[in-house]
Amino acid sequence: MERSTDVGLNRTGVDMSPIDTKEMLALSRATPASSGGDETSMAAVRREYNAEAEDLGSIPPPGTLKGVASTAMQKLTGKNPEAFIDKLGCRLAFERTGVRLYDALIAKCSTAPGADIQVPLDTLWTFRNQELQHFKLVEAAIRSIGADPTAQTPSADVDGVASMGLIQVLTDPRTSVAQCLEAILIAELADNDAWQMLILLAEKMGMNDMARDFRVALNEEDNHLMHVRQWYKQLVLEDASLAS
User: Fold this and answer.
1) Tens of pLDDT along 124-170?
2) pTM
3) Least crowded by CB within 10 Å, which of 59, 96, 165, 177?
4) CA 73/CA 81 separation, integer angstroms
């Protein structure tokens, strides 16, 4: 495979032009700052915005009689089903993103010379299809309690924004397979912890059958994480000519 860390015409560092660096520093010393102070003013503006801001989103009311009854029963026991629905919606959105991430990784590995040797395409397809099954599992779980899987919950909104950078890394034609695996590793680490939280919530809500199904998904995610971590480590070591 091609190396991803070759020496090239990188002009981002100041050491590439010592003369220009001296002139730039001299100008910064001779030119006063446009405003005085530090980050205190910025922090004050952020506090003001935070105090005035509304919530990021909300959980829609149940759209079915089953959902109304389920919510009412949880309320009677002192539980907050909206928090559970929020995390279900979050997981649904992230699993959909997981499918897209693996689609992009498969496309990357299909064109990178020798990538299919270190990162088997058939294994990637298995992981991609499991992400899709996890999406369908969560969708069914949301419907089973009478909630709407098409609604974007607040946590789903947050995860969507957080994962935008990962999508950009995977779909950038310039990124290497190792760099893409690092992005996948970030996603799998977050995914693993999120499934553990979802299982805990399901158990606390008394939905043991749902928690059992979620544990199956977590076991598959553990396998994803193990393989991605190993692939990434191997490619980084090879890039540094340190692979055994």
Assistant:
1) 999 999 999 999 999 999 999 888 999 999 999 999 999 999 999 99
2) 0.85
3) 165
4) 9
